[in-house]
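ARCHIVE CARD
Drawer: 12
Card no.: 0347
Subject: one protein chain, sequence and derived structure
Cross-reference: see card 0346
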Amino acid sequence: MQNFKARVYLAARRIHKGKVSTYREIAKKAGSPLAARAVGTIMHHNDFDHSGVPCHRVVKNNGEVGGYARGTRKKIQLLKSEGIIVRKGKIDLEKFGKRF
């Protein structure tokens, strides 16, 4: 699990400001394409910017913002501060999504 966690953090660190990726994409990049829920758990237990990991930039596959350890409102605030448009709790993945 530790190696997977490290790969998840590495993949998440590659999400640039103004972009998001999905739990599923991060799981694929980390080598376990069916582990999207595990990615969510890892992001949730991130110590707020642990090693520069922008866990707020990881969202659900359908564009919904998803959870955040500091609360969804804070996650949306952070995303908006980076120029990402959030409408009705969703993000346009075609415009703001990062594909690896």
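Annotation on reverse: The chain has a mean pLDDT of 91. The chain is about 40% helix and 10% strand.
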